[in-house]
Design a protein that fits this description.
Helix content is about 35%, strand content about 25%. By secondary structure, the protein is of the alpha+beta class.
Length: about 220
């Protein structure tokens, strides 16, 4: 991407170690290539939606190739969340339970909706916040690659100086309290912020792979 257009991506694969690695890498590469080659053809929201659709198509095709020996990738998939910055606006697209966060005006906001079983039950009023702690949080209801098409959540807002964004997998946000995230953002050094988050998640148990990108908008 050029200086005016920037793309940041986080993907968290599933389907065993090999399947998850293949799915997440293929989804990221496909989205990155699609945006690079087609950014002049579509408006940013359409570009990301079409890019996500191409990613899920490619992962689905790869997952359903005939198995070679014991190296079957059947059932693999991945979460996918991205931030695309173009002409002073921020576009966020998401499938799965990896998240985008926004730090603004001294507050921390979850900018995406988790596509997970526990979140669906919370939204439907089936369970309470307390009961959610005992429900499998890693069961997702939407991902890249399980089907050849997928519904994509997307929104955009103006890029504001002094704000910050973070993309992360559930290996991070599932282990750390958001109040702690915000307190370290306010009190810590931004160049070591990601390291602090990852260290804290590992200290709390490090139950899953951890991926994190932090984007600070300079004044």
């Amino acid at each position: 991407m050029d200086g005016k257009n920037s793309l940041f991506i986080v993907a968290d694969g599933m389907g065993g170690h090999k399947g998850g690695e293949v799915a997440s890498r293929l989804a990221c590469d496909t989205l990155r290539t699609f945006v690079s080659e087609n950014h002049a053809e579509y408006n940013p929201s359409e570009l990301l939606i079409k890019g996500f659709q191409e990613a899920t198509r490619m992962v689905h095709l790869e997952a359903n190739k005939p198995a070679q020996g014991s190296k079957s990738l059947k059932g693999m998939g991945t979460t996918l969340v991205c931030i695309y910055i173009k002409e002073g606006r921020v576009y966020i697209a998401n499938v799965g339970d990896s998240r985008a966060y926004l730090y603004t005006e001294g507050e921390l906001w979850v900018a995406t909706e988790d596509h997970s079983l526990v979140n669906e039950k919370l939204r439907a009023g089936i369970i309470t916040d307390e009961q959610a702690e005992h429900v499998g949080k890693n069961v997702i209801t939407r991902c890249i690659g399980f089907q050849p098409e997928v519904e994509v959540d997307i929104f955009d807002r103006k890029l504001m100086a002094g704000e910050a964004y973070m993309l992360c997998s559930d290996g991070l946000h599932g282990m750390i309290d958001e109040d702690w995230m915000l307190s370290r953002y306010k009190n810590g050094k931004l160049d070591t912020y990601v390291d602090e988050l990852i260290n804290e998640a590992n200290t709390k148990g490090g139950e899953d792979n951890i991926t994190c990108l932090f984007i600070h908008v300079e004044s």
